[in-house]
Amino acid sequence: MKTQDLITKRMVLRSMTLEDCDFAASLWGDPQVGEYLNNPPFKNADELREIISDIDEWEDEYPFIAYDKKTNSPLGTCSLGKEGPKGCWGFGFDVVKDLWGRGYATELAEAMIELAYSLGVREFYCTVARDNLAANRVMKKCGLRPAERGSFKNHQTGVVHESIIYRMTLK
Predict the structure, then answer these.
(1) 16, 32, 85, 122: which is deepest, by most CB within 10 A?
(2) What whole-number distance in Å separates Cα of residue 18 and Cα of residue 140?
(3) Domain spans of the chain?
(4) d(CA 160, CA 129)
(5) Strand order in the sheet with 74-82
(6) Is 120 left (phi over 0), alpha (psi -120 to 50) or beta?
(7) Helix 104-118 with 133-141: angle, nearest 10 deg
(8) Per-residue pLDDT tens for 154-165?
(9) What phi and psi, each to the nearest 5 degrees, are found at residue 162?
(10) pLDDT at 148 (0 to 100)
(11) Is the dihedral of CA 128, 129, 131, 132 positive or negative?
(12) Nearest alpha-carbon partner for 58 in 18, 114, 5
């Protein structure tokens, strides 16, 4: 679903469009960046465009491309949507490798929590690969706590990842 741009300390988050598929496919297709993703399988940007061709009609799902405020260069993606038990929402994020370890993922996660809160969401349910140590740290920094274990399949690689499900309830 399209929304107004979200502004963080260092980024502008814009609703994803079909024109963003080249960047997203490149980022998600990177073996290191995409290692723990749970995206639908696609081979290239054109195939991704086909998969998300109805993106403007999506309800209860908010995908974004993150841009650097100073350079307007794309530096990551994030999304918010319904996940898990009824009433729960989850979010995900990824950042270009050159910017890993600089707090961008935490900034993206915080923006998704703020957006969710503005939409009336109070229950969060986020699935993170157990081996994705950085994403697990981000969840904890943002106040989510491990609640259960599970698994998911990376549809690009076919690898099944053991996961930790993080939960948080806001007032």
Answers:
(1) 16
(2) 32
(3) 6-124
(4) 9
(5) 6-7, 11-15, 61-68, 74-82, 88-95, 123-129, 160-169, 145-153
(6) left
(7) 50
(8) 887 889 999 999
(9) -65, 145
(10) 97
(11) negative
(12) 18
The answer to whether domain 6-124 has CATH 2.30.29.150 is: no
45, 25 Cβ separation under 8 angstroms = yes
The tokens of 142 are what?
A: 């943002």
Q: How many CB atoms lie within 10 A of CB 91?
A: 25
